TrEMBL record:
SUPFAM superfamilies, sorted: Adenine nucleotide alpha hydrolases-like
Similarity comment text for this entry: Belongs to the universal stress protein A family.
Domain UspA stretches: 1-158, 167-287
Gene source species: Hymenobacter saemangeumensis
Cleaved signal peptide residues: none
PANTHER family in the record: STRESS RESPONSE PROTEIN NHAX, UNIVERSAL STRESS PROTEIN UP12
Superkingdom of the organism of origin: Bacteria
Full protein name: Universal stress protein
């Protein structure tokens, strides 16, 4: 998770995400790309580099000197100035971390997915509940689409983190056979935070707690997590149980594997990841189950 993308709408929430991304980059020796997506009238597919001009020689639609083109050019100039200011602030916050900026002229979700591919991104750090062009990005279809389609993990940040020191990681699952596909991703997270304690959490709705404990134990053995905390809680809903346990344990990070495929157990559907990502207090990392 060294090549980090931070979509920004210049809101406080996206700034919180940038701060976390810079701290992660310092810890891993990584780099950060700050991305702004311009969603303008009649300009849904043109892509621009951060330093002027269309990418790959593409032209603006209706590029005949019309008002839409003039508006877009002016907006691009303002955006680049704001990104340069953001890079200057990042240099003060995290000296030594390489920070570049990028602009995509596209629909928001498509712009982020395009940037992931273009820059070879390993991790997206996203400020939830932003304003302006990305208002409510983590609510509804945009969030679901990013969690479902992003080829890399997505970390949502909702509040300012006073030093992103990860000591307690909550890993909720139903620990059925499908959960084996989450082991490699979890190991990568733990490699990034080797001193963290992982809490393997199973939320039941009054089901057999002994069976749940057996599932957790089997998963822990298979993943080689001998020192993990193994927890079963009863709650009215899976998401409520996750959020409450994360609050009680002062979790620094919630990690949720997910997948868009049908036929998997209900836990791994994007709806749970989406709800927790937008409601749980600590940052929430989602990633795809291995095929």
């Amino acid at each position: 998770m060294k090549n980090i993308l931070v979509p920004t709408d210049f809101s406080a929430e996206s700034h919180y995400a940038l701060e976390v991304a810079l701290q992660l980059a310092q810890q891993t020796g990584g780099s950060v790309t700050a991305l702004h997506v311009l969603e303008t009238p009649d300009v849904a597919t043109a892509n621009f580099s951060a330093y002027g001009g269309p990418v790959n020689g593409s032209e603006l639609p209706n590029s005949n000197g019309g008002i839409d083109q003039i508006f877009t050019i002016k907006l691009m100039e303002v955006t680049k100035r704001r990104l340069q200011a953001l890079k200057g602030e990042a240099a003060r916050l995290a000296p030594g971390v390489t920070v570049q900026d990028a602009v995509e002229v596209n629909r928001i979700g498509d712009g982020i997915l395009s940037a992931i591919q273009r820059h070879g991104i390993d991790l997206v750090v996203m400020g939830a509940q932003g304003h302006g062009a990305m208002e409510n990005f983590f609510v509804g279809s945009n969030t679901e689409r990013l969690i479902r389609l992003a080829p890399c993990p997505v970390l949502s940040v909702k509040h300012q983190q006073q030093g992103f020191a990860v000591r307690n990681i909550v890993f909720p699952s139903d620990f059925t056979e499908e959960a084996a596909g989450a082991i490699n991703g979890l190991r990568q997270v733990l490699a990034a935070f080797p001193n963290a304690t992982v809490h393997l959490l199973h939320v039941t709705g009054g089901a057999n707690g002994h069976t749940a404990e057996q599932h957790i134990q089997h998963f822990a053995e298979r993943a080689g997590l001998a020192n993990a905390q193994k927890v079963v809680v009863n709650a009215s809903s899976t998401t409520a149980g996750i959020e409450e346990y994360a609050r009680q344990t002062n979790a620094d990070l919630v990690v949720i594997p997910t997948h868009a495929r049908t036929g998997l157990s209900s836990f791994f559907r994007t709806s749970i990841a989406e709800t927790v990502a937008t409601h749980a207090f600590p940052p929430v990392l989602t990633y795809h189950l291995a095929h």
